[in-house]
Amino acid sequence: MAMEADLNRFHKIVRGRIKKELRKFVANGELIGRQGKKTIAIPIPRIDLPRFIYGQSKGSGIGEGAGELGDEVKPGQGAGEGGAGEQAGDHALEVDVTLEELAGILGDELELPNILEKGKKNLDNRNVKYSGILKQGPESLSHFRRTYREALKRSIAADEYDFDNPLVVPVKDDKRYRSFKFVYKPVANALIVYMMDVSGSMGDEQKEIVRLTAFWLDTWLSSQYKDLEKCYIIHDATAKEVTQDTFYRTKESGGTLISSAYKLANALIEERYPAGQWNIYLFHFSDGDNWSGNDTSECLSLLQNKLLPAANLFCYGQVESRYGSGQFLRDLLKHFGESNEKVSLAQIKDREAIVDGLKKFLGKGR
């Protein structure tokens, strides 16, 4: 049981470290490269649980050794005075954290509400999640490996284990059982449409901010829906649907017509993702430059009459570049204001501001 308690304490410490430094983790692009299928390796400083060490004093600790009360304490060896050492230094520890746990930490820290249901088809699907080990439970939940381990530890501690005849027979106190809880997840499907300006004013750093923001958006929305599909649209003066890899690697040098992306997004929804059957999320990233006021007016009309009626949420994230005017964000604010439940607008100046953008995008619970 002590080992289980230590393991639980360790997980709580790891979770606390992640929450404490969430802004730093969110801004760290290297984490995405460490991502496995369902987990992500997070580096944290080495954690040592405090423990007592028993043994005889060797007279070399603090306050020990020769000397009288009042003797001057001389400084020890200073920094840089020692020679090359042969001992290993402290290293960062990589801890595998599931994407579900990351979503939970993100939601707790940003106080994100769960997604509101949309329509009668958004029914809950009850799943069983095994969450721990108990000493009592039904035989159908008996955990053979943990039971055998407890029996082995007991027989060795009692000096009953015969290495020549390694027979381990569990008794009642050795029995261990899985504990579980019910997890409710909406059955409805969800679609994310990512749109990004790839004109010449959008540089590599701007695209990296978009990539990191999209990763955390995916992580949260995946925790809310059973199935999540994604479409990627890039645009300069024209728009096209691309793969995820192309989305983050493409760079054009033409002008910018934002309406081209909105028209394509609307066409995708009408042809492949009927609004009555899908929960639709639209995320658009740009540095705020548009070709003309006329095109901006067309964008506002497309949003008002086509995209917003079909979508759960439209989010616009404006990333800063030295060439971008930022005018499009001001136009959206003027037209929709801050109170429209289906519109979330954020200015993401740098990586440190990604957390604030996520809070704005997801804080409405739609």
Helical content stands at 25-40%
CATH topology of the largest domain: Rossmann fold
Mind describing the biggest β-sheet?
A: 6 strands, mixed
Estimate what percentage of residues fall within beta strands: 15-25%
Provide an overview of this structure.
The chain is α/β, with parallel strands linked by helices and 366 residues long. The protein has 3 domains: 2-49 and 92-110; 125-184, no CATH class; 187-362, von Willebrand factor, type A domain (Rossmann fold, 3-Layer(aba) Sandwich), CATH 3.40.50.410. It contains 11 helices and 10 strands. The longest helix has 21 residues, at 204-224.
Brief characterization of the structure:
This protein is an alpha/beta fold and 366 residues long. The protein has 11 helices and 10 strands. It has a 6-stranded mixed sheet with strand order 7-6-5-8-9-10, with helices on both faces.
Secondary structure: elements and pairs:
Layout: H1 2-20, H2 22-26, H3 30-33, E1 39-44, E2 93-98, H4 99-110, E3 124-134, H5 144-157, E4 177-186, E5 189-197, H6 204-224, E6 227-235, E7 239-242, H7 244-249, H8 258-272, E8 278-286, H9 293-310, E9 313-319, H10 327-336, E10 343-348, H11 354-362
Parallel strand pairs: 5-6, 5-8, 8-9, 9-10
Antiparallel strand pairs: 1-2, 3-4, 6-7
Helix pairs in contact: 4-6, 6-11, 8-9
Supply database-style keywords.
366 residues, alpha/beta, Rossmann fold, 3 domains, six-stranded mixed β-sheet, two-stranded antiparallel sheet, elongated
